[in-house]
Structures are given as C-alpha cells and as structure tokens.
Amino acid sequence: MRIGEIAALVGVTSRAVRHYHHIGLLPEPARQANGYRAYTVRDAVLLARIRRLTEIGLSLDEVRDVLADDAGRELGEVLAELDADLARQEREIQERRQVLAVLLEAPLASDGPLSPALAALLDHAPATTSPAAAKDREHLALLDAAGDGAGAELFAALRPLAENPGVLALYERLDELEGAGVDDPRIAPLAAELVAAVPDEVLAVIPEGEPSATGFGRVLLDDYPPAQRAVVRRVMEELAERVRRRGTS
Length: 249
Known about the structure:
There is one protein chain. The protein is an all-alpha fold. Helix 3 packs across helix 5 and helix 10 packs antiparallel against helix 11. The radius of gyration is 28 Å and the shape is elongated. The chain is built from 14 helices and no strands. Keywords: Coiled coil, DNA-binding.
C-alpha cells in the first residue's frame, strides 16, 4: 500500500501519517525501488491503533507509551482487540440511537427535547405564569439532560406533586420573596409547607446526603436571589433529614 491508500483505509489523512513518521510514532516502512513507501497490514493496524487511542483523548505522548507496552504482541491479538473495540463502538452508537428514537417520539418543547418521563410530568402540571415555577421547570430540564436517564424514577414520583393545585400557591409565595432579605419571616413557614407537600414516594428515590453540597445543588441554589435561596436551602436540608430518618426507621 502507498501512503494515500493506508490513510484512506484507516480513515486519517496522508498529512497525519507523515506527522506520525516525523515524531517517530509510526515507523517509516521500507521504500520500493521507485522511492515510494510500501505499507503492510501491520502498518495499517498500528496506524489504526494510533487513531483509536487519539480518539479516546490520549495525547500523542500517551499513545507512544501505550504502543511501547504493546511491542512484540502477535498481529492476531492486536487485530482481535481492534475488532472488539469496533464492536463496542457499534453497541454504543446503537444505544445512543435508541435513546434518540425515544426522545424524538416525545413532545418537543422549547427547552427540549425532553425525556418521556419529564414530558409526562410536565403534561400533568397546571399552566402558570409563576417565574418560580418556570425556574423549577428549567432545573428539571437540566437534571433531565445531565442525569443520563437517572431522573425517570424521580419524575414519576413527582407526579402527585405536579397535580396538587396547592403547589401553585406555594410558587406564588416564593415569587413574592424575590426582592426580600434573608431575615424575612416568611422564609421558614414557606419552606416548611413546601417540605410537607413533598410525597413520601419522592423520598424513596432521593439519595441520602446533603443535596445542597452536590454540584447540581450548588448550581440550583445560585440561580435564586437571597430570600428564595434561603427557602430552597431549607427545603433541601429538611428533605435530606426526612430521607435520613426514613432510612433509619
């Protein structure tokens, strides 16, 4: 094979092959009488190995170390490993396409696509112009996008809360605290009522620990002004305590 042929076979550019030669990552093959490099199957396997390693994020120096560890391995063993790697990639692509198919079947919203579980939850939530309710929806969408499907059980458990008409009044009271200070006397009773409104089924899917200490919890808290943040922090802390008590009972 010539350089253009091996590059096309592996899926890289001829320039990349020359660069790998230049830095000593890919040994230069013997040249024919006409001066052209003559690449073999082993050269192609090595080049494919370099490409795979760089695609998963290794630097060229790290690739060099891996290849040094692979020195002396049988060609069949390396080919089998490359075949297994391709099979893994095929499975991952198929799994991603299956998730995409589910998302495409779900209603497309302005903040979507949403997972079927979150879309079903929001379909049961009453219409409202509350800014706090809108912010809650954004947080759920963020959890949905970052949770890799882990939020489905939580969204299902939140259905009774979404259908509770009294929750809208709580959102409106939270809206009223937008410009208030952290010493506002409305903070504690509102937090207590919000905690009381959360069904026990939700507690069963909330992991133990302090939510406000997690990355998602910190992002959520930073999204609120001081008085509202104090309410949400209290809700997080009291729900975490309820979860702990539930786990020891």
